[in-house]
Amino acid sequence: MPDRPKSFHLEPAVHDYLVAHGTPPDEIQLGLIEETRRLGSISIMQIAPEQGAFMTLLARAIGARRAIEVGTFTGYSALCLARGLPEDGQLICCDVSEEWTAIGRRYWEKAGVAHKIDLRIAPAIDTLRSLGQTPAFDLAFIDADKPSYPDYYEEILERLRPGGLILVDNVLWMGRVADPTAGDDQTRAIRAFNRRVADDKRVDCVMLPVSDGLTLLRKR
User: Fold this and answer.
1) Is residue 27 part of a domain?
2) End-to-end CA distance of the chain
3) In the prediction, which pLDDT does 7 show?
4) For the domain that residue 102 is a member of, what is the CATH number?
5) Which pLDDT score is estimated for 6?
């Protein structure tokens, strides 16, 4: 496990208890967590284990068959989403790093979900715009560069079926969104995105204190 929980608002002991009393990471997931941890401080980009378990459960609960994620990093979120899809399901992963996603590919193979994952190495906005505009996705996950969140959101929402879900990561930004002294570009971008989707009449919106903040958006 990481040295400190990404769920920054929880004491480490409470976080450990929370993970232990949900569906815990299996050996493959633990291996990926450990290999990512060895990358150093950049490992904070990996989603928390309790978030991964939640995403797997959510994909199964809504019967998702087609999903898309923006921002794959070392592949933990993709592994969790793919496990929530049926055998003939498909997850399109958008990322720009061959190096980081190569780590994920190995663990997808070990987990037996690689056949569900279509990894596309290119700027995510280009990949999204290359897709047909007919609503085709049941579930989406956004976890990439924060100033581009609105662009990813609009492109995905257009291609999401009514009743489909978009999950958006890092919406609490380690609590900086509520800190009036925090005025950096990343924090301001996330605040603006949070206001935008909360006011968007095309979706139902709820923000959850899962990990670093996870917003769930349901297309009406």
Assistant:
1) yes
2) 37
3) 83
4) 3.40.50.150
5) 78
Task: Determine the pLDDT at residue 4.
Answer: 57
The reported pLDDT for the residue numbered 45 is 95
How many angstroms from the chain centroid is the CA of residue 115? 20
**What is the model's pLDDT at position 116?**
98
Type of residue found at 163? G
180 near 199, Cβ under 8 Å? no
| Per-residue pLDDT at 8 | 83
**Residue 78, in any domain of the structure:** yes
Nearest to 165 by CA among 93, 81, 58: 58
Distance of alpha carbon 60 from alpha carbon 162, whole angstroms: 17
Q: Report d(CA 94, CA 71) in Å as an integer.
A: 6
Query: 184: buried, middle or exposed (CB in 10 Å: 19+, 13-18, 0-12)?
Result: exposed
Number of domains observed in the structure of the chain:
1
Q: Which domain holds residue 62?
A: 12-219
The pLDDT, as a whole number, for residue 16 is 87
Contact 138, 161 (CB under 8 A): yes
- Where the chain has pLDDT below 70, the residues are 1-5
